[in-house]
Write a structure and sequence with these properties.
The complex is a heterodimer of chains A (656) and B (230). Chain A is α/β, with parallel strands linked by helices and 656 residues long. Chain A has 3 domains: 83-264, Thiamin diphosphate (ThDP)-binding fold, Pyr/PP domains (Rossmann fold), CATH 3.40.50; 277-440, TPP-binding domain (Rossmann fold), CATH 3.40.50; 442-627, 3-Layer(aba) Sandwich (Rossmann fold), CATH 3.40.50. Chain A has a 6-stranded parallel beta sheet with strand order 2-1-3-4-6-5, with helices on both faces. Chain A has a 6-stranded parallel beta sheet with strand order 9-8-7-10-11-12, with helices on both faces. Chain A has a 6-stranded parallel beta sheet with strand order 14-13-15-16-18-17, with helices on both faces. The radius of gyration of chain A is 25 Å and the shape is globular. Chain B is α+β, with helices and mostly antiparallel strands and 230 residues long. Among the domains of chain B are: 64-138, Alpha-Beta Plaits (2-Layer Sandwich), CATH 3.30.70; 144-216, ACT-like. Chain A, domain 2 (Alpha-Beta Plaits, 2-Layer Sandwich). In chain B, the strands form 2 sheets. In chain B, strands 5, 6, 7, 8 and 9 form a 5-stranded antiparallel beta sheet that branches. In chain B, a hairpin with a 3-residue loop joins strand 6 (174-178) and strand 7. Classes of the chains: A alpha/beta (656), B alpha+beta (230). The interface between A and B is large, with 57 and 52 residues.
Chain lengths: 656, 230
């Protein structure tokens, strides 16, 4: 079955390459990559890249991808010839393949070894050996966010499992579909404080959508089918499966259930997908009455794949679209109705529009405190239509006038015919005012700071150059902190799922491993991990994974030698008491060199473009060290506890 | 909404006024949009208050006792999930009674808690998110029979025993255990009836008290279990 389809290969690491073949994976596994030629274009590296990319199904939704999926399903309905009996670990691998998993991120350990013992017999599954389980969880998360498919990570009992916890929590807060697999000690030892035993299901209980402890191999097919169904259905989220070692080793002939059987077995899980017709009519009436409406687009738009519906709805009703941090990319920022990023570090003009709106149409967002500020003064004139698939999000943080529970894509499809088309001229006055606010706020932004004129590198300049030189088509993975805000504000996003960011949990260390997952999920895309020096140092052990598995992630470190956001808060809120804000970092060029990753440095504005281009030219991972201005702050800023109208735009305290 | 929301917050274009980027003070919840001149101009919907009322924070209303009934799948850990969720979401469970139903794989929980209507609705919605929860119903304002059972071990010497027994009988309770200087009294009733019962016995000296927490059932032919989502 060797059928390799070579397609276009252009300069740059993320050239589109599609191929349905699934062979040759076992060779790849033994193929040592640590001595990769440094010119980056050697045959071997190119071949390795080809193999790495061949394991995926690019071009989701195309006929070709559908054919691959079909072939995979047929293959799986046949019994796999084995020279041994089928054990629980086989069920795990079969179930993963049945669910369309092509990559999983994991780290072996004592009790999960039965899976690793059979994994080699399933070449459809590419296992990426991470350097720390947290990296596995974030990578699965990044894979899921970039592809919309369920990400899978795996760890052993005890410390392996607890190391996954941060990544699982990150996925929960941002509604990312994920299945986390852990091993546990044999059932007879549970509760005996055995070696590497911890009550991990007790730990993950409040931070998963659902979790399981499996003690019997016969339960595994059902549990896996349920887990994937739960993880991706309705509001997505992480599901954790803890499996005892003996369950992995038991023989079993239990069949895999069909999707119908799974649904029938989950009577307590019936998400509502279609909006209630009466609520839709109420919403249409509100929209018809509104004179200053604003759409608030959230992550739900991306999850539901509803960008097209959002644009159609906004164009028909002529309503400007503001977006949340995780809603970046819901609408092309060049679209005339795209108004920008809202919230604590959002654009002033956007927050101003929200504060003066008479109607907010919230689509797949949850009125997080970073979006609303003080709820009492939030959008004081606005009535609110709130669409969310999770009923518990409605009325949780703000009271709303028209709640609509449903999948935002289906709700918008049903709502669009109910609303009257609006002539843009009818909103001319409103739009003129919004445009005026926008001009004013953008001219006062960091672009006008002038830091770059004094030879300093300003972070907004760096991220806007990264956006420009990648043609705004890459996937940009943010870490957490100041650069996360600069990235969201200044990069210029055009497409859904092109911006990945740990919004809810705010997990520092997210970007490099998540970018790793995104790069494996979307081999057709260039992937940039943009991180601060603090976040990078939290998970930089994954550099070795990037090299060993030849994952072409470009890392841009915004190094201000500080915990910048901490420093900013200390400057503004804590009277300049800069305790623990200074951060020593290594020489990142030497660090990257030690891992065999080509690295480049930019300390002046004119060095930025060459450094980015050099990184792009590398076939494989590359790192760019941006030495940015050390005391640059993110403005505007909404102090905690204040409202959206209380943005700080500059701070006049003398610099340290 | 008595006021027309559309005219409120409307900021007419005022080319004469300079653009003022100064943020409004924290005390004024007016939108940043209108300049002072513009706010004076705009037709206030109600002259009594130019500034709109503050937006209510969900859950900040008046607290009172609620009774929730949750129908759950009888799976390992389901009680832990419910308890953990209530803790994590900052709801304080007043009492919790769990038992089987007539269906072998289904259990029923009766949860009493204090909170305002919005907060308790939020608790119910959060419970609904649990995969093992089939149905949650707030029966506070519905016609129900609500009972709990209490066992009270109360001091009863030869001198006081007859008085204790009289009180117990008045409350339609019964003595279920008798020893030289103690009795165990059993009573069934609503929470407030049991409270009163216990209060009366307290003067004799309560050695031990246990209450099951309330269980409720709808009156008439209505059934909470009837429409479970399966």
């Amino acid at each position: 079955m060797t059928k390799t389809t070579e397609t276009t290969t252009t300069a740059g690491s993320a050239a589109g390459r599609a191929g349905p073949s699934t062979d040759g994976r076992s060779e790849r596994a033994t193929d040592g990559r640590s001595e990769r030629a440094t010119d980056g274009r050697s045959e071997r590296a190119a071949e390795a890249a080809g193999q790495a990319r061949r394991s995926h199904v690019p071009g989701d939704g195309t006929a070709h991808a559908a054919a691959v999926e079909r072939a995979r399903r047929e293959m799986l309905s046949e019994a796999r010839p084995r020279r041994r009996t089928r054990i629980g670990a086989d069920v795990v691998c079969e179930a993963l393949i049945r669910q369309g998993v092509d990559v999983l991120f994991g780290y072996p350990g004592g009790v999960i070894l039965p899976i690793y013992d059979v994994l080699g017999e399933y070449p459809e599954l590419r296992h990426v050996l991470v350097r720390h389980e947290q990296g596995a969880a974030h990578a699965a998360d990044g894979y899921a966010r970039a592809t919309g498919r369920v990400g899978v990570c795996m760890g052993t009992s005890g410390p392996g499992a607890t190391n996954l916890v941060t990544g699982i929590a990150t996925a929960l807060l941002d509604s990312v579909p994920m299945v986390a697999i852990t091993g546990n000690v044999p059932a007879a030892l549970i509760g005996k404080d055995a070696f590497q035993e911890i009550d991990i299901t007790g730990i993950t209980l409040p931070m998963t959508k659902h979790n399981y402890l499996v003690r019997n191999a016969d339960d595994l097919p059902r549990v896996f089918a349920e887990a994937f169904h739960i993880a991706r259905t309705g509001r997505p989220g992480p599901v954790h499966i803890d499996i005892t070692k003996d369950a992995l080793q038991q023989e079993t002939s239990a069949p895999h259930p069909s999707e119908e059987e799974v649904i029938a077995g989950l009577p307590g899980f019936r998400p509502t997908f279609d909006g209630h017709p009466r609520q839709l009519r109420l919403a249409a009436a509100e929209i018809a009455r509104a004179r200053r409406p604003v759409i608030l687009a959230g992550h739900g738009i991306l999850i539901a794949n509803a960008s097209a519906e959002l644009v159609e709805f906004a164009e028909k009703t002529q309503i400007p679209v503001a977006h949340t941090l995780l809603g970046v990319g819901a609408i092309d920022e060049r679209h005339p109705l795209s108004y920008g990023y809202m919230g604590m570090h959002g654009w002033k003009h956007v927050n101003r529009a929200i504060q003066s709106a008479d109607l907010l149409i919230a689509l797949g967002m949850r009125f997080d405190d970073r979006v609303t500020g003080n709820v009492r003064t939030y959008a004081p004139h606005a009535r609110i239509i709130h669409v969310d698939i999770d009923p518990s999000e409605i009325g949780k943080n703000v009271a709303v006038e028209v709640p609509i529970v449903g999948d935002v894509k289906r709700v918008l499809r049903a709502l669009i015919p109910l609303v009257e088309p609006v002539d843009p001229a009818a909103r001319a006055e409103y739009f003129a005012e919004l445009a005026e606010w926008r001009r004013e706020s953008e001219s006062a932004s960091w672009h006008g700071s002038g830091a770059w004129r004094d030879g300093y590198l300003s972070a907004d300049y760096v991220v806007s150059r990264i956006g420009e030189l990648t043609n705004h088509e890459a996937i940009y993975v943010a870490d957490v902190g100041q650069h996360q805000m600069w990235l969201a504000r200044y990069t210029g996003f055009r497409e859904p799922n092109s911006h990945l960011s740990s919004g809810g949990l705010g997990t520092m260390g997210f970007s490099v491993p998540a970018a790793m997952g995104a790069a494996l999920g979307r081999p057709d895309k260039e992937v940039w991990a943009v991180c601060g020096d603090g976040g990078f140092q939290m998970t930089m052990q994954e550099l070795a994974t990037l090299v060993q598995d030849h994952i072409p992630v470009k890392i841009g470190i915004m190094d201000n030698k500080k915990l910048g956001m901490i420093r900013q808060w200390q400057e503004i809120v804590y009277a300049g008491n800069y305790h623990s804000a200074n951060l020593l970092g290594p020489n990142y060029l030497k660090l990257a060199e030690a891992y065999g990753i080509p690295a480049f440095k930019a300390s002046k504005p004119e060095e930025v473009d060459p450094a980015i281009r050099a990184a792009q030219a590398v076939d494989g991972p590359a790192l760019v060290w941006f030495e940015i201005a050390e005391t640059q702050n993110v403005y505007p800023m909404m102090p905690a506890g204040k409202g959206l109208s209380d943005l700080i735009e500059r701070w006049n305290e003398p610099e340290e | 909404m008595s006021a027309d929301p559309n005219s409120n917050g409307r900021a007419p274009a005022d080319p004469g006024a300079p653009a003022t980027p100064t943020p409004t003070g924290p005390a004024t919840p007016t939108p940043t949009g209108p300049t002072p001149a513009a706010s004076a101009e705009r037709a206030a919907p109600s002259p009594a208050h130019a500034a709109p009322p503050e937006r209510a924070v969900p859950g900040s209303g008046e607290k009172h006792r609620h009774v929730l009934v949750a129908i759950v799948l009888n799976r390992p850990g389901v009680l832990n999930r419910v308890a953990s969720l209530m803790r994590a979401r900052n709801f304080n469970i007043e009492s919790l009674a769990v038992s089987h139903t007539d269906q072998p794989d289904v259990s029923r929980m009766t949860i009493t808690l204090y909170g305002d209507d919005v907060a308790v609705e939020q608790a119910a919605k959060q419970l609904y998110r649990l995969i093992d929860v089939l149905k949650v119903q707030d029966v506070t304002n519905e016609p129900t029979v609500e009972h709990e059972l209490a066992l009270v071990k109360v001091r009863a010497t030869d001198r006081t025993r007859s008085e204790v027994i009289k009180i117990v009988e008045l409350y339609r309770g019964r003595i279920v255990d008798l020893s030289a200087d103690h009795v165990i009294a059993e009573a069934v009733g609503t929470e407030s009836e049991i409270d009163a019962f216990v209060a009366l016995l307290r003067s004799f000296g309560i050695k031990e008290l246990v209450r099951t927490g309330a269980v409720v059932m709808s009156r008439g032919s209505a059934s909470i279990e009837e429409a479970i989502k399966r």
